[in-house]
Every structure is written in structure tokens, then in C-alpha cells.
Specification:
Strand order of the largest sheet: 5-6-7-8-9
Largest sheet: 5 strands, mixed
Number of domains: 3
Helix content: 25-40%
Structural class: alpha/beta
CATH architecture of the largest domain: 3-Layer(aba) Sandwich
Number of strands: 9
Number of helices: 13
Distance between the termini: 124 Å
Amino acid sequence: MATLVPGATDTVLPSAPAAAETVPAAPATETGVPADAEPGSAAAPTNSELHAVSVKDTHPESLSDTPAAPAPAEKVEPEEPEPQNALTKQFTDAEWTALKEFRKQLPDILADAYPDKKDAKTAPISMWGIELNPSGGKSAKESVVLMKFLRARNLNVSEAREMLVSTLRWRQSFKLDEVMKEEFDEKLFGKVGNIYGKDKEGRPVVYNIYGGNTKEVFSDVQRFIRWRVQFMEKSVMLLDFENTDQMIQVHDYEGVGLRSRDANSKNAASEATSIFGSHYPELLYKKFFVNVPSLMTWVFWLFKPLMSANTLAKMSVVGSGPHAIGKALLPHIDAKELPKRYGGEAPDF
């Protein structure tokens, strides 16, 4: 018989020779080992062998020599960083989220705006001097332009999309490229609008003068609208969309009364307001109404409850004369950039 050495699994000591008498074999158990086999005998498995059999019987999966490799993780492409400038750095997280979704839709937006253009989904276009690229190229200036439509619609991507499509269609139907080449009588329209100087943050200051020869100016409403849109485009082109993306407007009502407004002037004002509200979003920083007659001031306050808080924050009704006007404008515009008639030191235009 062999004797196990304590602590040694595979080492046995020689035993005395077995008797020559033949003994009938005991019936085998399920493991194939005789039921009466002594532990440590040639017929009996060792403790290690018994453990191996037990493991194989209860854990058949352990028979595999190599464990199954885990499924490969799906590869996630790193997001391309956004180009930045002074204006995009002011975007909130919510604005960035909306902008990324809005930009993904740009190919379809251009396809909707230009249904007859075969390469609309891939060809860049220009608006306000900034390229809008549907092919995936990013630019910080493009982000600033797109953000204007999102902000105008409270970051609702679907509504911003509708607004941009409508704007692009209008620019095409209005034949804006041709309008920008049109020449207007400087002696007449030069008295109605001027772009003069900048505010303390570099924004252009635009003056609209309503007390001139209004009958002649508004005698042809559509001519006035074309001039007014061209004037607006020239104002917007002064924005670099890197440090400045808004303007200041000064509306001068000196010499204007309720009776001086005829049907043409009212129609022109209504159409221009509709165009700028629909197709030139978020381009106004401040609007000052100066030299406003007392009766018109009363009308403004009458309609004040109907205006949004955002609109009211941008509007100021100022009194008449250089002193009163300067008091309102000089905090925003340096005296050297402001004409004397408005309380500054610069020459009058």
C-alpha cells in the first residue's frame, strides 16, 4: 500500500507488495473507480485528481483552456473642437448644444431654401459677408451668424431652421445681389441715413433721419425699401462677427409730426419693419429715439406694455437738444465719435 505524505499532493512512499491472491474487482462507481479502492492505491485517484473531476463535472465551462475574449468596444470618434473667437466664448452650454444640432441640419436647410440648386447640400453660400458651409467646415464667424437665428427663436432648432430658410428664400426673391449694385440719389437718401463712428465697444452707429423731404423719399415705396435694405446690408457688413455682431441705431424725429406721415410713409415703415424683424435677427444692440415730439412719446408709452422685456431693454426714448441727447448717448459713444448736434464733439454730417 502507498502512503501519502502530508502536505505533498503528488509524492507517495513505496508500500509493501500486494498479496498474490486474486480478489474480484469491486463494482465501479460513476467516476470509473472501484467502490472499494483504498485511497492512495493504484486504482484510486489522488486528492488532486478527485478535485479535478469534481470541478469538471460541476463546471463544464472550465474545460476551455482559453476564456472567451470580451466583445470589442464600439469605437467612438473624438468630437472635433469648435473654432473660437471672442463672441463664441460667450456662448452658454445650452447654446452650444442647440448650435451643434442646428449646424447638422445646414445641408437640408440650404436644400429647402434653394430647391433648384443641385449642389445646395454641399456648396457654401455667403450671407452678411460670412460663409455658411454645409460640407462640414466649421468657422467661429459662421457659428455667430447661426446663433442669431437660434437666439431669435429661444434656441428652438426647428423654429430657427424655418427662420433661416425663409430668410434665404427672401434674399433670393428680393434679388439682393442686384439691389446692392443699385445707385440711389445721394442728395435725397443721403439725408435720410448715415453710418457715422463707433461706440466704445467698436459697434457701428447708424443714424436714421425722418425729418427731411419725406414726401419725395417715400413717393416710391419699393424704391425706398430697396434703398433701406441696401443701407441695412452696408451696416451689417461693418460687423466682423468676431468682436462685434451688433449695431447701435439712432432714430432722429426732429421736424416729424403725426400729420407729416402719409399713406406711403406708413406703408414703407410697416414693410421695412417686417423685413428687418423676419430676416435680420439679433443685430441691434441699442436703439435711441431722439428729438421725439411729446405726442409721439406718449404713443410709445401707450404701446410699451405690448413689447417684450428684451425689446424694451434695447430701446430708449430721449428728449430734444444736444444736452439731453448727449446725456443718453455719451455713456455708450465717445464724444469724438458723436456729432455735435447729438451732444458730442465730432463734426455734423
